[in-house]
Amino acid sequence: MKTLLRLALATLVTFLLTEVGIRIYRHAIDQIPPHPDASLAAEWDWAKDHLAAGKPTTGSDVRHDPNLGWVNEPRTRDAKGSATRVARPRTPGVPRVVLVGDSFTRELGALDARFPDGGLFRPGWEVVNLSVQGFGVGQAWLRFRQTGVRYQGDIAVFGLYLRDYFRTFRTFRGYAKPTFSVDAQGEVAIHNTPVLGPEALYEAYRSGERKIGRFGRSWVLDFISGRMQLYRNHSRIQPDQFAIFTALLRSFREDAEAHGACPVLLVFPTRPDRYPGSIYEKLEGRTREIAPSLGLPYVSLAQALYEGVSDEERALIFNEDSGAHMSDHGRLEVLRVLDAALERLEPGVCPKPGPLVTAP
Fold first, then answer.
1. How many domains are contained in the chain?
2. Which of 53-67, 193-207, 240-254 has the lowest mean pLDDT?
């Protein structure tokens, strides 16, 4: 009995010392308290930074949107290849492609001047790129439903960077955002809207209506719980999350077809040195499996750019200077692959669900 009591006491003392230590350490490096809810922790980080700055912002090149969280201006090209505003009404006889996604898809519009003749932005096509940096799958779908359908594209491209999958289930990432669920009929339900504006959120923290941290919570247990949640999400694909993901893709296809556009799913892999065996490789495989049943033609960039090529060639897709994003070479390769896929399409005829490009 005495041994058990000594063990219990030693455990308690160790826990208390660890609790004190983690609080001292995080205060010393100016970090917020840990929390198992990554979205709430991200909101606290936003509040801490903006309270220190003395003003609220959503970013230098984005503005608040009550439905999407944040948004920026579209990148558009007219039929002559010039970067100019494209009118929503269709130009008779001029084909148009509309793209939605995150920064991976948005950055495709920054390389036109260096892209050879005959590329995606070749003369004769109007291009409307509505992609927004930091978006998750649900936001990209909502962007298309809210704005994209009004541009009446012949082709609607949904750019899916595989990390966007996990962004979909967060209520805050960079800034507050909508979340999504699936009802009993398989329809997508939208939550956390209207999204609070940055001025109102800033004032809520400045006035003390909202507070950073929670009184009475153990930082040690919250840290461990957060790590366990992260491991759970990244160790295998969760059925409830995947059901929301598939419902969003199905809704994109239905919205595109209802407005006369042929839907195409463009799937971006993560870096080649971190991709094999990762949750993202598993997710890409599952996406390819379910795309035909969702009625979606797709382009797998992992297959097109990673399979059947040397390690040196794969390494060029991302480089040390590009950080988390593709290199210029990688983006040019994506444009070539996408252009080759779209060039196979017959005017006015949507492709059959399934792969548009096979591995080399």
1. 1
2. 53-67
